[in-house]
Design brief:
single chain; 7 helices
């Protein structure tokens, strides 16, 4: 089973949209997929699991949200006592699929509680990280900081997924080529309303 951790350079940059498109792409290939959202804040107004189901056609019994909180903030603020060990146990107990797609709540360094951050889920569950990057001014710096961090921590990096929805300036068309030049062709996906490139 290939296990992916979908993170991003910021909030509101298309992680859930990418997960929906990715799950749809994998299902259309004939692969079996399980989607997991370890923590959803701002719930039930925000429900990424349901968005992914609606976008991809994934059956509800193959999509999970493990922890929810109404307060729309980092888990550090939204939970009195985040159940980290139980969350890891549930993710590590999933088997029998071709793909496991785990969507983080925010970026790698979002705190879950005083002792753990999002990237710890990737580490403790053996997940390869895909970093979603909005194609806009400043994205090179943000993308490379994520890449640097993953390398320093020794965490498997599965590549960038670049969201072209944000492209506006003339220079934005060069961002994908620059990222590939700086990271030995690490851009694995390009998407907007549809998946334009997928290389996993």
């Amino acid at each position: 089973m290939r296990k992916l951790f979908i993170s991003g350079t910021d909030t509101g940059i298309g992680k859930t949209h990418y997960c929906g498109l990715l799950c749809k792409y994998l299902l259309e290939k004939g692969d079996s997929v399980c989607y997991v959202k370890p923590v959803q804040t701002g719930f039930p107004e925000d429900d990424d699991r349901q968005t992914v189901i609606n976008m991809s056609g994934l059956k509800p019994e193959h999509a999970y949200t493990l922890n929810t909180a109404k307060f729309p903030a980092a888990p550090y603020l939204a939970f009195d006592d985040f159940p980290y060990e139980n969350t890891i146990k549930k993710i590590n107990g999933i088997s029998g699929y071709d793909w496991l797609v785990v969507e983080s709540a925010g970026g790698l360094m979002v705190p879950l509680d005083e002792g753990y951050m999002n990237y710890d889920i990737a580490r403790d569950c053996g997940l390869e990280t895909i970093v979603v990057v909005p194609n806009q001014l400043g994205c090179i710096n943000h993308a490379m900081l994520n890449h640097y961090f993953l390398e320093k921590e020794g965490l498997p990096f599965a590549g960038f997924a670049v969201n072209n929805h944000f492209a506006a300036a003339k220079s934005d068309k060069f961002n994908i080529a620059i990222l590939n030049d700086l990271t030995d062709d690490a851009v694995r996906s390009v998407f907007s309303d549809v998946m334009e490139i997928v290389e996993l």
